[in-house]
Amino acid sequence: MISLSGCASARAETQQTETQVAIENKGSDTMVNLALAWAEQYQKEHPEANISVTGGGSGTGIAALINGTVDIANASRKIKPEEQTEAEANGTNPVEFVVAKDAIAIIVNPENPINQLTLQQVSDIYSGKNNNWKELGGEDRPIVRLSRETNSGTHVYFLEQVIRLGQKDNKTLFSPDTLLLPSSEGIGAEIRQNPNAIGYDGLGYVTPDMKVIAIAKDASGPYILPSATTVNNGTYPIARDLYMYTDGQPSGYIKDYLDWIMSPEAQAIVTEQGFVPIN
Amino acid sequence: MKTSQKWAEFAITWLIRISGYSAVIFVILIFIYLLREGLPSLEKVSLSNLTSERWYPIEDYFGILPLLSGTLIVTVGATLFAVPFGIGTAIYISEIAPRGVREILKPLIEVLAGIPSVVLGFLGMLILSPFLRTSFNLSTGLTAFTGSLLLGGIAIPTIVSVAEDALNAVPRSYRDAALAIGATEWQTIWRVTLPAARSGVLTAIMLGIGRAIGETMAVMMVTGNAPVMLHGLSSLFSPVRTMTATIAAEMGEVANGSVHYQTLFLIGIILFLISLFVNVIASMVVFRKPKRSERILS
After folding, report:
1. Bridge-partner residues for B224, per DSSP?
2. Whole-angstrom distance, CA of residue B35 vs CA of residue B29
């Protein structure tokens, strides 16, 4: 009843569905657009791959990896020691890959005349020592501090590296009246319309209608604007690595995908997304 | 024939009885679960920490008071705004509006009740908050007041819809009698119709407040979420963080069984007790024994 050629094509089809591979990829909201762009491009070149990308935060991604529900976790921070312990208790072994770099841009409303700040000044603003732009040479306006929610990897990074200036024994906290906004969009909306506001977010989320502040390590040092060049040569002080974690050394199709992410082609997408490629 | 009828009667009575009891059982089960997950927090976190004015859980600061005061100020603000507006609208639709207007307004209000709160939150963030900042000359538009206005707006359709039904159920003869003895239209509404519909109107208010306390997304988007303690009336125009927003923002990331997790459940218990309190007060008012004069009236 069935012709020979029909039989052959049917077999080819089953073979194709057999080789369909699914990769679950979850984690950092900072990285979600980048991970999506990678997945789209990779699926174009490898039609058999089926990559699903979701956000939720670095902690969510790592928790999912520990529970075995994802293949790759995206994280904008290193895995915490307690997460490592939990992973070992659960029989998982997270392996780390640096896949891109991110610079945190300090942003203000374009109407704000301030162009540059030192790390110490940014720390003083966020800890509540400075409450008026006048004290920093700006207009007589109250300072409205914006931050991501405490569950965001960007929040923790900013607390440790900027507010506490990277000092381990420094216990400075965010000023209690810091506005904690649940999304990058929330920060963007407030920065665009409020000349009192100062915020921080990944370089990938900065749009031309915000003003980026040049940052110096100390008052004598050069004030540097974040860009691919300044991040890679290490002159911009607020930059970090972005990670992907797998359970154990990756093999098979997951390894193929991670190898591709390190390729020049995939790293070009990093630049397009506003992040900084690894060398 | 007769036995099968009897049996059907028996089955249906029991089905109804079970569905009646199940609501109670579910509430009890939820409360037990909340207690089991939340109470250990009281052992692990010192009372002075819980009653402090600092909420910063990633560094083990678990002061609940700023969150409590945040919920309080936003909910009271929303109630003060929504109750007069809601009852007023209900009175207009039920008592004053001509038939044609009423038939357009009633379904419109019901459509308004169906708008998802996230959409309203988005509008609040992009339109209401910049507008309030410039018109009141505030440092930021993301304040308790913005949240109150938005929550009031969300509660109004519920209040209008339920209160209008209650007013509508008051027999025509009451109004006719009042008007016949020379009462003005306003006197009839204020002294006769509204008191007669009292229990329905109170239910409407309670449902409205319930929506306001429990609402999460819209509040999270417009109140700024800064856990600052209430300091007088000026707090109305500064950012606050509500209990619901705290649970929603932090529960997704927290490690299962950690102190932070248990404290979030403790906040859940407090929310539960608050709404229980509101409901008990409401039923005490609704179900209290009517006075003799009221019995004669009805």
Report:
1. B240
2. 10
**DSSP state for residue A114 in the 8-state scheme:** -
Query: A161-172, pLDDT tens digit by residue?
Result: 999 998 888 889
Q: Do A181 and B224 touch (CB under 8 A)?
A: yes
Is the distance from CB of A214 to CB of A120 less than 8 angstroms?
no
Location of structure tokens 């999270």: B220
Tokens 């290490």, located at residue: A234
Distance (Å, whole) CA B252 – CA A204: 24
Question: DSSP states of B50-105 as a string?
Answer: HTSS-EEGGGTEE--HHHHHHHHHHHHHHHHHHHHHHHHHHHIIIIIS-HHHHHHH
Question: Between chains, do A182 and B249 touch, taking CB under 8 Å as contact?
Answer: yes
Reported as a single tens digit per residue, the pLDDT across A6-53 is 444 444 444 444 578 899 999 988 888 899 999 999 999 999 999 999
Coil/strand/helix, residue B256: coil
User: For B14, how many CA atoms within 13 A lie in the half-sphere containing its CB?
Assistant: 6
Query: Distance between CA atoms of A30 and A32, rounded to whole angstroms?
Result: 6
Inter-chain contact B241–A180, Cβ cutoff 8 Å? yes
Give me the half-sphere count of Cα atoms (radius 13 Å) on the Cβ side of residue A63: 14
Q: What is the pLDDT of residues B2-16, one digit of tens each?
A: 678 889 999 999 999
Residues A104, A58 contacting (CB under 8 angstroms): no
Cβ–Cβ gap A179/B142 under 8 Å: yes
Chain A interface includes B146 (CB < 8 A): no
CA distance B223 to chain A (A): 9
Q: Does A163 touch chain B (CB under 8 A)?
A: no
Report CA-CA distances (Å) from A159 to A31, A77, A154, A165, B157. 19, 12, 9, 8, 43
Note whether A198 and A127 are within 8 A (CB). no
What stretch of H or E contains A23?
Answer: strand A21-27
Query: What DSSP state is assigned to residue A133?
Result: G
The rounded distance, in Å, linking the Cα atoms of B215 and B152 is 11
Tokens found for residue A203:
């370089």
Chain B residues within 8 A of A27 when measuring between CB atoms:
none
Find chain B residues with C-beta within 8 A of A182's C-beta.
Answer: 220-221, 225, 249
Q: Take residue A68 and report the two structure tokens written for it.
A: 């075995």
Q: Please check whether residue B62 is in contact with residue B55, taking contact to mean a CB–CB distance below 8 angstroms.
A: yes
Alpha helices by DSSP H, chain A:
4-19, 32-45, 58-66, 81-89, 119-127, 153-158, 184-193, 228-232, 252-261, 264-272
State how far the Cα of A57 lies from the Cα of B222, in Å rounded to an integer: 21
Residue A180 contacts residue A79 (beta carbons within 8 Å): no
